[in-house]
């Protein structure tokens, strides 16, 4: 999926699909040691607030569900020109009243926020940008999850460079049938040993990417993008 520069709301897939691709990465990367770092983390992870990405350098992002049918995606990539534009782009303009404004305004005050996208009533939205804005950072920040091949490539690196294993895990996440058994069978720890399955299971429970009790498998190919 191509992301324009600056991004367009239509560039983003449905939230459940974005959540699945991002979430399975958070699950596979989970370890007890990383959990102990709390908010002082880098990489990809999930906590009670939602999914996170932080490379400790040029990009960071957060993705949260804020009620039935409501989602918010926000963050910054160094490619974003929103705060450098003259005048700065008001990335909160037109936002619904349920956005986490206290947090977002604190980020704005600290010059840490590049863009904000929100999902409601079945569609993504964002503030209206000036015509001369070159980029808002969405492409560099989120293409790794909006593009299925890029999401798959990320997983390949995390499962011992086994493309077949990565495909199994990604498809299971997209279809909400990811299980501890699949993780145990297909994930290899960074040192080549056994993965931290308890930590991965805790992350899996937070993502909700596993089948609900008594729930059958979703139809093959339900999520495509």
Task: Write up what this structure looks like.
- With 225 residues, the chain is of the alpha+beta class.
- It is 35% helix and 15% strand.
- It contains eight helices and six strands; from the N terminus they run H-H-E-E-E-E-H-E-E-H-H-H-H-H.
- A six-stranded antiparallel beta sheet has the order 1-2-3-4-5-6.
- The N and C termini lie close together (7 Å).
How are the SSEs placed, and which strands pair?
Layout: H1 15-29, H2 32-35, E1 43-47, E2 50-54, E3 59-65, E4 71-77, H3 101-109, E5 115-120, E6 123-126, H4 138-146, H5 148-158, H6 163-174, H7 180-186, H8 197-207
The proportion of residues in beta strands is 15-25%
The helix content, as a percent range, equals 25-40%
Which segments are poorly predicted (pLDDT under 50) over 5 or more consecutive residues?
216-225
Please identify the structural class as seen in this structure. Answer: alpha+beta
Question: Separation of termini?
Answer: 7 Å
* Largest sheet features: 6 strands, antiparallel
Shape: elongated
Strand order, main sheet: write it out.
Answer: 1-2-3-4-5-6
Q: Give the C-alpha Rg.
A: 18 Å
Quantity of strands, as a count: 6
Order of helices and strands: HHEEEEHEEHHHHH
- Tally of helical runs: 8
Average predicted local confidence, pLDDT = 91
């Amino acid at each position: 999926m191509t992301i324009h520069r600056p991004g367009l709301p239509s560039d983003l897939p449905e939230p459940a699909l974005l959540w699945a691709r991002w979430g399975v990465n958070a699950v596979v990367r989970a370890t007890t040691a990383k959990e102990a770092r709390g908010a002082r983390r880098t990489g990809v992870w999930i906590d009670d607030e939602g999914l996170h990405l932080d490379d400790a350098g040029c990009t960071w992002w957060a993705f949260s569900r804020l009620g039935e049918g409501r989602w918010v995606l926000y963050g910054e990539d160094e490619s974003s020109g929103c705060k450098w534009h003259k005048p700065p782009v008001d990335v909160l303009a037109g936002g619904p009243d349920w956005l986490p404004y206290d947090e977002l305004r604190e980020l704005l005050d600290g010059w840490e926020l590049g863009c904000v996208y929100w999902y409601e009533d079945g569609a993504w939205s964002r503030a209206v940008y000036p015509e001369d804005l070159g980029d808002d950072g969405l492409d560099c920040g989120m293409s790794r999850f909006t593009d299925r091949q890029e999401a798959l490539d990320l997983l390949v690196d995390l499962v011992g460079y086994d493309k077949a294993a990565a495909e199994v895990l990604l498809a299971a996440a997209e279809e909400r049938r990811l299980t501890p058994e699949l993780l145990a069978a297909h994930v290899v720890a960074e040192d080549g040993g056994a993965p931290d399955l308890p930590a991965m299971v805790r992350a899996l429970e937070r993502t909700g990417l596993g089948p609900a009790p008594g729930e059958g498998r979703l139809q093959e190919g339900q999520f495509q993008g």
